Amino acid sequence: MGLTDLGGDMLKESYGVRCPKCSQAIVDGDTVVWTGARIVHLDCRRPRALNFDEVAVLFAYCWDHAVAECVPCGRRYRQIELDSELLRCAKCGSALIDSIRAHLHDCGLLPPTIRRRVLEAYERSRILVKLAQQLSDGADVLAREVEARLHATREPHRVR
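-> structure tokens emitted (160 positions)
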């Protein structure tokens, strides 16, 4: 399974991890992939897009039933009714991505092994984003320490 983080937009500006491709912050809820040396958005134009594995599971197991519900209007959507690029409610424009991902976690038609793999991919992605944030925070601390030491060595020594 690919790496996807399922969650809400939170503290976007306080995160220090940025996608090297688009310079946007990488936050909970963004779909990220590991390129071997760094994490990047799967699709920088749509940071929260479904990953390839989520789309494959939807097509294989959820084609014939509702996969999303718009909370504001109460409208339910089957996969065929959704614009695959936008994943928004046709009536009010609300984002449906969280509803689709919740469906993937709860769909009773998914075999247990597939559901477990979806949940494992979610956890791997959360861990990856958290570790990237911790590394970024650690690098910030080290940079401040180096700056403070450089400043201290440049100050003239006071004579008593």
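Residues 12-154 form one domain.
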